[in-house]
UniProtKB/TrEMBL annotation:
<keyword id="KW-0443">Lipid metabolism</keyword>
<keyword id="KW-0276">Fatty acid metabolism</keyword>
<comment type="similarity">
    <text>Belongs to the ELO family.</text>
</comment>
<feature type="transmembrane region" description="Helical">
    <location>
        <begin position="124"/>
        <end position="142"/>
    </location>
</feature>
<dbReference type="InterPro" id="IPR030457">
    <property type="entry name" value="ELO_CS"/>
</dbReference>
<feature type="transmembrane region" description="Helical">
    <location>
        <begin position="73"/>
        <end position="92"/>
    </location>
</feature>
<dbReference type="Pfam" id="PF01151">
    <property type="entry name" value="ELO"/>
</dbReference>
<protein>
    <recommendedName>
        <fullName>Elongation of very long chain fatty acids protein</fullName>
        <ecNumber>2.3.1.199</ecNumber>
    </recommendedName>
</protein>
<feature type="transmembrane region" description="Helical">
    <location>
        <begin position="149"/>
        <end position="168"/>
    </location>
</feature>
<feature type="transmembrane region" description="Helical">
    <location>
        <begin position="217"/>
        <end position="237"/>
    </location>
</feature>
<keyword id="KW-0472">Membrane</keyword>
<dbReference type="GO" id="GO:0009922">
    <property type="term" value="F:fatty acid elongase activity"/>
</dbReference>
<keyword id="KW-0275">Fatty acid biosynthesis</keyword>
<keyword id="KW-0444">Lipid biosynthesis</keyword>
<dbReference type="GO" id="GO:0034625">
    <property type="term" value="P:fatty acid elongation, monounsaturated fatty acid"/>
</dbReference>
<dbReference type="GO" id="GO:0030148">
    <property type="term" value="P:sphingolipid biosynthetic process"/>
</dbReference>
<dbReference type="GO" id="GO:0005789">
    <property type="term" value="C:endoplasmic reticulum membrane"/>
</dbReference>
Length: 274
């Protein structure tokens, strides 16, 4: 009896952690790296990253001088500026430059237009860029910028690839993903442009007075996400998303808005939130 219960439990866990994701992934998505099976590879990457940036990396760097990495950061940030400009334009095309009906019913499973099929590669690449973003925190560790490795920063970089992965596995044609990609790419273009310029050294700092406005733009993006989410719920489209995606994704715009608001107030206002 114990063996049977153990076997049943193992089978359920295998289904939840792998087979569910295999069964629910459209065949057009399965051919791409990391999308043919379950989320075990993604979770392994994220957990190794988390261990490094929170514990292992700081311990390794404890008795070492910080790396400067100025040229590396310039190249890295320039690459991300180019990537995000590209995806702002690409997502605008996905949305038909604002003329796409945003909250119509989702297409039936395995029902794809030629346009939707052509969009798949770029959507997959967009997910890969969220893994590329993880180097942000690795560079903070190597430069011993521990003050920048906040809970907000770690949570943001950890949860974003998971959400993108879930959307592409379970609901790749949702317009919410396209809206998020468009808005986030604009915000990241501004943000990584700032990081790129700041890497030139102290002489340019007087010209970077607009740093605080980056957080304001980030707050605005979460307002846009929240409105888009509420609109999708109102028109019934969000109810067509798989329950796993609804469960994890529903509160994220509001959680992020709260955390970024706290960051903004604590960073720039004299009367800080206690």
């Amino acid at each position: 009896m114990i063996t049977n219960n153990g076997t049943t439990y193992t089978a359920k866990m295998h289904y939840i952690l792998r087979q569910y994701w295999v069964d629910e992934t459209d065949d057009k998505i399965k051919s791409y790296a990391m999308f043919g099976g379950g989320p075990e590879l993604l979770l392994t990457i994220l957990l190794l990253w988390l261990i490094f940036v929170v514990k292992l990396g700081p311990n390794i760097m404890a008795n070492r001088k910080p790396f400067v990495l100025r040229k590396t950061l310039m190249v890295y940030n320039l690459m991300l500026v180019v990537i995000n400009v590209y995806f702002a334009y690409t997502a605008a095309k996905w949305l038909d430059y604002g003329f796409k009906p945003l909250f119509d019913r989702l297409p039936a499973r395995n029902q794809w237009s030629d346009k939707s099929v052509a969009e798949i590669p770029d959507k997959i690449i967009y997910f890969y860029t969220k893994l590329f973003d993880l180097f942000d925190t690795i560079f903070f560790v190597l430069r011993k910028k521990s003050n920048q490795i906040t809970f907000l920063h770690v949570y943001h970089h950890f949860i974003t690839p998971i959400l993108a992965y879930m959307v592409l596995k379970l609901c790749p044609q949702t317009t919410i993903f396209e809206i998020v990609c468009f808005v986030n790419s604009i915000v990241h273009t501004v943000m990584y442009s700032y990081y790129l310029l700041s890497a030139f050294g102290p002489w340019i700092q007087p010209y970077l007075w607009w740093k605080r406005y980056i957080t304001r733009i980030q707050l605005l993006q979460f307002v846009v996400y929240g409105v888009a989410l509420l609109m999708a719920i109102y028109y019934g489209q969000y109810n067509e998303h798989p329950i796993a995606l609804q469960w994890l994704g529903t509160g994220q715009p509001f959680v992020f808005f709260y955390m970024f608001y706290r960051f903004y107030v604590n960073s720039y206002n004299k009367n800080k939130v206690q």
